[in-house]
Amino acid sequence: MSDNWKSRTTAVHAGTRRSQYGEMSEAIYLTQGFAYDSAEAAEARFIEAGEDEYIYARYGNPTVRMFEDRIARIEGAEDAFATASGMAAVSGALTALLKAGDHVVAARALFGSCLYILEEVLGRFGVEVTFVDGTDLDQWRAAIRPDTSAVFFESVSNPTLEVIDIAAVADLAHAVGALVVVDNVFATPVFSDAVAQGADLVVYSATKHIDGQGRALGGVILGTREVIRKKVEPYMKHTGGAMSPFTAWIMLKGLETLDLRVRAQAANAQAVAESVQHHPALARVLFPGLAAHPQYDLARAQMGAGGTVLSLDLKGGQPAAFGFLNALKIAQISNNLGDAKTIVTHPATTTHQRLSEEQRAQLGITPGLVRVSMGIENLEDLLADITGALDAAN
Asked: What is d(CA 316, CA 58) in angstroms, rounded to the nearest whole number?
């Protein structure tokens, strides 16, 4: 297997393990356990499992390992551990690394479930968490202490699409020996260079772009082999957050078309954002690919594109937002993102509903804000659908 393959080739071929039958499509090893030739062989494997030797599906599985190898190659990481969901990846990465008395600095603009992990779960077990404005390097500088163990942020925040300078925050964290954990869902593995930019651990909800077709929950934690196998794997295999073999097979199939889908979605997002940015129904359009975005230059340097998601803030507040949502014909109302289908979400009443009104206001999640995850539909059809719904809302 070549180390010089480009990303799209890697996404199709890396990590493949074929049985004696020489199957073209990756095999699904749908088994929870593995047989041994002898009692001595079982004993030896429990002492130390070799390459491609497995004990129990919660610890590892050939199909899951193919997915882990492939996504690690795409991301430029040494290793990966596949998880049952994106939130299993977030919680597993943080909990595997942290203990009572540790200090974490995190960006304030986070998905609601991520905030729950930091505020409720880690706080309950004695981890101190300091929140900062992720785009303000002075706040990171002031909050990171000599005893800080880790920093955590979404490279592009959900749903207000703030872009955080991975390299700059990583430099501040590494200066005190803290690990950098990046939730990279909105950047996607296609536009990501997070490891090269200083991330120690990168987490994805594979439910999003990696599957990309709304079929299965999944997640993955990527990093150095040392951290993945000595910190993350022991925690995950004993607490049960591993990915199932069938889900891993679905994710492998998703990786084959990931680059094609994500680039098509990003092109649609860019075109729609540019087309509707001055629509009279809108107070603002949030999209890192627009020159008016506060972190436009950083987004271009860090990702090379604006991504696949934009947010539209309607002037009429929640009634206008609901009117827009209900007028759409192609785009579907749901709370997922990264799908081949265009999906629209009203964060204030769904994904970020548990936050107080004050917290939502602080994060810029207004009653009129609608998150639009662009699909791969025909651009002309999408523009007609979205523009028509904006006209109706206006």
From this structure: 50
**Residue type at position 85:** S
- Show the domains of the chain with their CATH numbers: 7-254 (3.40.640.10), 259-393 (3.90.1150.10)
Q: Where are the beta strands (DSSP E) in the chain?
A: 79-83, 103-107, 128-132, 148-154, 179-183, 201-205, 219-223, 282-286, 309-314, 332-333, 343-345, 369-373
- Using CB atoms within 10 A of its CB, is residue 134 exposed (0-12), middle (13-18) or buried (19+)? buried
- Say whether pLDDT at 94 is over 70: yes
CA-based nearest residue to 125, from 146, 88, 94: 94
Whose tokens are 């074929």? That residue is 18
DSSP 35-56: --SSHHHHHHHHH---TT--SB
- CA distance linking residue 310 with residue 372, whole number of Å: 5
Decide: 173 and 130 in contact? Cβ < 8 Å.
no
Q: Is residue 212 a contact partner of residue 260, using CB atoms and an 8 Å limit?
A: no
Give the Cβ contact number of residue 255 at 10 Å: 25
Residue 104: phi, psi to the nearest 5?
Answer: -125, 140
Rounded CA separation 264/284 (Å): 24
Phi-psi region of 185 (alpha: psi -120 to 50; beta: other; left: phi over 0): alpha
Token match 């079929």: residue?
215
**Residue owning tokens 């002075």:** 138
Strand pairing category for 148-154 and 179-183: parallel
What's this model's pTM, rounded to 2 decimal places?
Answer: 0.95
Q: CA torsion 84→89→93→98, rounded to 10°?
A: -80
Angle, CA 289 vertex, CA 216 and CA 5 arms, to 5°: 60
Q: Read off the tokens for 337.
A: 């993102």
**What number of other Cβ atoms are within 10 A of residue 52's Cβ?**
9
Q: How far apart are CA 31 and CA 244, in angstroms?
A: 9
Q: How far apart are CA 364 and CA 103, in angstroms?
A: 26
pLDDT in tens, 300-312: 999 999 999 999 9
Burial 274-307 (b: 16+ CB within 10 A, else e): eebbebebbebbbbbbbeebebbebbbebbebbb
Hunting for tokens 């271009």 — which residue is that?
Answer: 300
Radius of gyration of the chain (CA): 21
User: pLDDT grade, residue 359 (50/70/90)?
Assistant: confident
Spatial distance between the Cα atoms of 373 and 262, rounded to a whole number of angstroms? 11
